[in-house]
Design goal:
2 copies of one chain form a homodimer. With 443 residues, chain A is α/β, with parallel strands linked by helices. Helices cover 43% and strands 15% of the residues of chain A. The N and C termini of chain A lie far apart (51 Å). Chains A, B: It catalyses: L-fuconate = 2-dehydro-3-deoxy-L-fuconate + H2O.
Chain lengths: 443, 443
Amino acid sequence: MPTITSVDVCDVRFPTSLTADGSDAMNKDGDHSAVYVVLATDGTDAGGRPLTGHGITFTIGRGNDLVAEATRQLARTLVGTDVAAMAADMGGTYLSFTTDSQMRWLGPEKGVVHLALSAVMNAAWDLAGRHVGKPVWRMLADMTPEELVDVADLRYLGDVLTRDDALALLRAVEPGKAARIAELEADGYPCYTTAAGWLGYSDEKMVRLIHEQEELGLTHVKLKVGTDLEEDVRRCRLARETIGPDRALMIDANQVWDVPTAIEWVRRLAEFDPLWIEEPTSPDDILGHRKIRDAVAPVKVATGEHCHNRVMFKQFMEAGAMDFCQLDAGRLASLNEIVAVLLLAARFGVPVCPHAGGVGLCEMVQHASMLDFVAVSGTHEGRLCEYVDHLHEHFLEPVRVAGGAYQVTGEPGYNTEMRAESIARYRFPDGPYWAGVLAASPA
Amino acid sequence: MPTITSVDVCDVRFPTSLTADGSDAMNKDGDHSAVYVVLATDGTDAGGRPLTGHGITFTIGRGNDLVAEATRQLARTLVGTDVAAMAADMGGTYLSFTTDSQMRWLGPEKGVVHLALSAVMNAAWDLAGRHVGKPVWRMLADMTPEELVDVADLRYLGDVLTRDDALALLRAVEPGKAARIAELEADGYPCYTTAAGWLGYSDEKMVRLIHEQEELGLTHVKLKVGTDLEEDVRRCRLARETIGPDRALMIDANQVWDVPTAIEWVRRLAEFDPLWIEEPTSPDDILGHRKIRDAVAPVKVATGEHCHNRVMFKQFMEAGAMDFCQLDAGRLASLNEIVAVLLLAARFGVPVCPHAGGVGLCEMVQHASMLDFVAVSGTHEGRLCEYVDHLHEHFLEPVRVAGGAYQVTGEPGYNTEMRAESIARYRFPDGPYWAGVLAASPA
């Protein structure tokens, strides 16, 4: 039986600040970065290759080393773990990391230690999927309702979602599962793009990218806003003119406003008919989002990429503070917490439109959306998974987008394995790229 | 003019798990620890001694190194800072740390990076107080309303507390300030103790400690609960019999329950007439606390030691989810955020009863309570600052408790300087205490 023999964690940073890829009103110069975990085993996969697991969490540069070190401290307990036993009890594997009260104090369940748990468990999920020979969405979709609920972290949710509630939700969508899998394998899962809308891009680049994305069937367009109102008016007008009246335009402020400012600003941009305003204020402000939602209707409110755990999602949904749930595969502590949030979303009827972009987030969240469609909400109506055509070249099994949809790639695991040459070059601070930058910068 | 010449950050851990000091239902074996920051300058204080600043944040052991490293990364920008300019613009000094969007991504404003900002700014406050020759509570109390509001971090609070609202609150309590300072210097600020109630203590030890605390005038008693209901019934009965019917008993579950369990458990313990139930569930669960509060009245709900920033406090208060605000001087990002929370509490009429214990928390929060009394709420009616007689021997200017109150110690700064011999012995992992423990433990 294969056993985990070692854990390797590294800090990989891509210099995206040089091209303003990913720039927004809050984050003007991020270097999209990954804490990358490799679990090695003494086993082989069905193809006879070494059986390994690869996990990622995402940051935007400085401090990635802090998450990497937290990840090392958490992950080392996995060495010696029997892979088959782990894959058969992913709920128990996850819970084993929640019993260290000393580490818990540093959150709890938020910030650096929670990002680190995500990286560790994402690697465990990739390993489990490879061990059973399935993509993780399919591994989860093939579970019974009882098995799937056992994966989910339902702690602290009992006032709105009991285990029995969760089982009832899953049983209700059991019929039609096979048909949905067939539909998914034929058509993929619908997505939208943020690629054209970064704040640092010129008008010409924005318009060109909008047209390029159309060729991939990506008809929704999302723009970053929030730095200068008149500039936002101008860019929204240009985007709306470019896409015409019928296609969806979304806007994203990345947390720069307080509640009164958000309301005022969004009302001014409402003439361009945005589908949603994303992250209008502090990601912790449940009641503030509710106020904004009430004030800017019919513009809807989307948030979640910085929503740090399932307890926050529970409240956002219960309070009627979020129209779209943008969970993040690197901020929530892996599929164990994501499944809980999918169940909450089904319970409250909130469509899940995961956050992606960054490094590896597209690769991971496609699994969350596919699982949601097949086995949890049972629909993708009114739902879109985010997509950014960015940094996929560093992955061995990158996402495939065609016809405006994430296509099922079919490989076992979580699509999270990065190319060895990418890691070697962009490893921080000792890979040749950063060693060169650091040598050239003043001390 | 004195300038900050260097920053030293160290990881200090006290082996409190050996004696169950600090043990509760969630945290059974914490080693009370500090990230300790020393800001050195080229100046001297009024007494001719080197002018320095000392800051602390508190954790319970493992992972303290992560906070220490985050603290190093943040604090190094202070080297070269002019102390007089810094002390005259503590609001600006604080805001300078909030502009690094890459570090912000790791929270935002929560977890390891926020704990680290607390340590850095606590050191800056200690240095500022020593520079102006005042205890920090007095430095703040002597400010004009405009100056005090400029210290406070009011970002994201605009929907419930504008700058003008804050100024009006402060101006309303200006009359009587001098009389309150005189009262405070004569009588101190009232406190209560948790020293007797840790979960790992025997009945005999609990009763003995209750009687010992009485001699200090500490008549309120707080017990940890939440592991075993029948055991809690027995211990609460014993404590109530020991203190009689008229003194206040508080209970503290340290987040172990979900909402339905909290309601059931507290209703069972209500016969012992607890004043409050503290941390009944996840510290993130604003709406859950509100449900518990509604269900267990007249038992009140106290929380806040894990409430990670002012945006969360804003919502807890607006939602009517907290009867007592237990802010923490190591979890909030220093007095800049604490002043904002004191203003919110005054706005909503919520009494502030800060969390303390740990390492250095008593030393710091006494300043928050004293400031609240003198210049923000203008009263200490129905308010108590927590006190634990624990680890004060490691401080040069420890708290002084007499007559059931924190007495004004009068030294300039934040009472946060630790003894060099304590740091040397308990430094992790290289101080002689931990070097010995690690050498003796299996690899």
